[in-house]
Amino acid sequence: MIEAVETKTDPTPFSSDVANAVLNRLTFGVVVVDEAARILSANEQARLYLDVGDGVLDEAGRLAAEIGFESETLRRRIAAAAETGRSDAALLRRSRSAKPLVILIEPAPALTGERAVLVTIREVGRASPRVAERARQLFHFSPAEAEIVARVVQGLDTAEIAAERQVSINTLRVQVASAMVKVGVHRQAELVSVLSSVDMLD
């Protein structure tokens, strides 16, 4: 006979060392804010952006955009997500890079009675330096396929990658097609989506 054992877990966000360790391994920023955009918690990657004001910043304990007029829009979207329970997204410009930050705004379950919002921060076209290695391990890519798909995930087009690798565009297309078969997708956008998801941990 199997006996059910009741266990209790502490549902407080970021309360355990294990949760913090996992969040700090993510290659993108994670900030938990309340409905007024007050910062409740942030992982190490988010702190890198916030501390130098790279696209986002900690403005007296509140999440703000580096470009002033974008802050009000960001805060309105956070408040709306908390109020309606609907997700949202935004692109925030940066003075340190031509590539904007992708901000995803997700309502979080009310674990402690207050409404919280999960804000993720990711650079457009940023891929971990280890995405090629992970792709090889997970999908058994050849070294060439792994390097090519890593560049595709970073947003380079076929002509740029072919010129960089000094191969013909046809050769490159064959290698991308081979990678798509190994992943089990039919379109390059699907390939990018799948490979972006393997780039979550540092």
Short description:
The chain has helices at 17-25, 44-52, 68-84, 131-139, 143-153, 158-165, 169-183, 188-197, and strands at 29-34, 39-42, 56-59, 62-65, 88-92, 101-108, 116-123. The protein is α+β, with helices and mostly antiparallel strands.
> What is the arithmetic mean of pLDDT?
83
**Beta fraction of the residues?**
15-25%
Helix content: 40-55%
Number of strands: 7
Number of helices: 8
Secondary-structure content class = alpha+beta
What gyration radius follows from the Cα positions, in whole Å? 20 Å
Widest sheet: strand ordering: 2-1-7-6-5
Q: For the report, how would you describe the main beta sheet? A: 5 strands, antiparallel
CA-based shape:
elongated
Order of helices and strands: HEEHEEHEEEHHHHH
Span of the ends, CA to CA? 43 Å
The stretches of 5 or more residues where confidence is low (pLDDT under 50) are: 1-11
